[in-house]
Sequence to fold (514 residues):
Amino acid sequence: MKYLLILGVVLVMLGILVAVTPWYIFPVCEMDGMYATTSAGKEMLMPCGYTARAETWVVAPMLILAGAILPLSKTKQYRSAIGIFGVVLGALVLLLPTYIMGMCANPQHPCVVGTLPALVLLGSATIAVSVVVLAKR
Amino acid sequence: MLCFAFIASSILSARYLISGTTNSLNVGTARLGADIIAVPAQSVAAGEDVILTGQPTTFLFNDTPAPEIMRIAGVGEASAQIYVASLQASCCSYPVQLIGFNESQDFTISPWLKSELGRPLRQNEVVVGSEVVGAVGTPFAFFYGRQFTVGARLEPTGTGVDTSIFIRMQDVYAMAAESETKALQPLNLKPGQVSAVLVRVRTGFSSEGVAASIKAQIPDTEVITANGLVRKIAGQISLTTQLLYIAAASVILVSFPLIVLVSSMVINEQKREIGILRAMGGTKRFILKLFFAEAITLALIGGIIGVLASFILMYTFQNLIALDLQIPFLWPSIGQTLAEAGLALALVVGVGSLASLYPVVKNSRLEPYEAIRSGES
Fold:
């Protein structure tokens, strides 16, 4: 079952990339010191900050876990479940910055030009790998 | 295969960069419709930024030079504009470029409005660039204490037009007059004052010649020409495109002997099969075609991987690239995209065929007995 190990490693790597991309590879606005300021002068997180947290602390750990248990799964049913789980997680990676939570409104903000397309790519790659898992189970 | 993929992706990325900026400049300058833009002498860089990247800025002539420009030989039409950077906009909490245009003289927005909207703009109505947030027909934002409504939205151009907001000139003057009492910061704009004059050159005159006349005859005035913008952008992207071309050329130079060697090794391992094919009646020409087809297929697969990788990365990160390089960028048309991809694939197949030429020709000439014997040893 060498292919399961390879697919598992790819899923783990994708999970790690999803976790670090919004902070280090294509950082969101707050990493550049950009915050929304209220009329009272209070600095608040922008939508991209919440999206980044959701990707890093909710979606990425589940993706890493799915990748880690894939080579250990003994039955077809297990592998199908992991494949479907992977597709859902990939869709979440893709939909969090585009529809569910969104990014900043300014088209020139770093989260829109960098983080958003990177997460869309990673989400699409996760879905593609999970479909391969489903097909090869 | 990876070498072929790298060569194809480097060349294609450079080509996309060039055609994307050219396409954007063509669409952007066509949208502006001007051959020359006259600006205050000290504001050339700011003027270029407004057109190319939409970097919000405010600059003004001391008075309007439009009537004097109209008297210069070769000037067909002249239309004044006002460039004002907004304060923090409530819609999107970032400054945007406000462009005031004179409806009676304008040839930038008015003809488009006539065909798309079927009427001129109403009071406090604006035309927004494709990337400005706000739905058509809805109350939009307060600028200097005055609220505006979105009247229409422009098509994407990849230039500063996309992040700009076009307002009737009389509304800009009214907004400036009210800003003393309504805005957080007043807008210092005297009635009649403008930022730039857009000029259309009469047929038979060169834009460079008319631009030189404007510079010579109107004191403290500089000119921005479409050709000048193209030269500026070409200079800005030349380093990046050169780097990509050099990377592709280096890979070709380094990998060429390697591909020759690998092809030789692969064919040497198949000498026995060549001998058997020849003994079964396969001609030298057939062997030649067979191994050429193999080499071309390998190059083609590598090239397709490179083309796809380049396309996905360039398309996904086009805004980041444009922002980092400070260039306008609009994705080329489907036809041009396919033509560039075809060109890169043709080059990769050419390199692959050339590299495998010597080992393929050499081994196809082997006699059956000789081929089987050397293949067994």
Observations:
- The first strand of chain A starts at residue 36 and ends at 37.
- Helices of chain A lie at 2-25, 47-69, 76-100, 110-136.
- The longest helix of chain A spans residues 110-136.
